[in-house]
Amino acid sequence: GGMGGGHAMSPEEAQQMFGQFFGGADPFAGMGGGMGNMGGQDGTSSFSFATGGPGGGFQSFGGPSMSGGMPGMGGVGGGGMDPISMMMGQMGGTGGPMGGMMGPMGQMGGPSQAAEPPQFDAIPTGTLVSLQNLKSAPERNGDRGVIRQYISSTKRYMIQIEDSQDTMSVKALNLLQHVGVRIHNIASQTELNGKSGTIMAWSDANQRYNIYVKALAKVISLKVDNCILDKGTVVQIVGTSRDELNGKWGTITEWIRDGDKYNVQLSASQIIRVKMDALRV
């Protein structure tokens, strides 16, 4: 979502949020590892959700040989399902840049309808989001849900709230998209570069994302320009020198390595080039 004056989420709070995706429990508990905090340079900080069992390294989540694990979850380092994917599946499928198909709640019966023209400034139906900076219903801040519909006349999204039948009509500025990124240009921890992750939270205070990195089973705090957003992600333009662009939404069509910029499509006829740090989800 856009910028806002909301609460700045620390990595520790992101850890708690991550646990809440699984009913308030740490899905990596019982694996034999602890919560190993580690500091980083280049503005990175991270914490681990239990980094391995007696044999060291990252162990699988569950399975017959793991006591206290979560049955049905695949391995971190192997080809199994990661916890973010599992959570998305529980929400009825995802669309947009996160991939996947709409689940049962998104299926429509009856005859097929003609495809509508693409909306480059609308977050795709099926995208997993969290609510933020709500003033009229602050108790809902932090709740998660899935976008079920975009209403262009009001510029609001209908959100199906997780684990309930409740829906809410919400502005884009009150949403944080849990979309995919690729880590980029960390000089002091080069082993992180190229790894994929999912945005878990945004800290307005220090202008950083908390990113869950599947391969490491940990959350790290990164600057905006250290996170390459996936192609197809819908973003808001902020803080550019062109006032007429600030606040607009568009779809990323390409990341340009030279200059660390994106091509962002605002409409069927307009594509602009924007610096990485001038975009938010």
UniProtKB/TrEMBL annotation:
Highest taxon in the source lineage: Eukaryota
Gly residues bias locations: 33-42, 52-72
UniProt region (Disordered), positions on chain: 33-72
Name by which UniProt lists this protein: Uncharacterized protein
Organism: Proboscia inermis
Species classification: Eukaryota, Sar, Stramenopiles, Ochrophyta, Bacillariophyta
